[in-house]
Design a protein that fits this description.
80% of the residues lie in helices and 0% in strands. The chain is mainly alpha-helical and 46 residues long. The protein is flat.
Length: 46
């Protein structure tokens, strides 16, 4: 599903910071309830 370019982009974004990581999580979640994923990541961040 994920191409090499996408994987590299995700890795770079993860390195850049937490906010970018949340965005990546939402993208990975896609059709899978992004709200739940966001809630979990926000809890972990705190």
């Amino acid at each position: 599903m994920l191409t090499e370019n996408v994987r590299v982009e995700i890795e770079e974004r993860m390195r850049s910071g937490e906010k970018a990581r949340k965005a990546v999580m939402q993208v990975l979640a896609g059709s899978k309830k992004p709200q739940e994923r966001d809630a979990r990541s926000s809890r972990m961040a705190r």
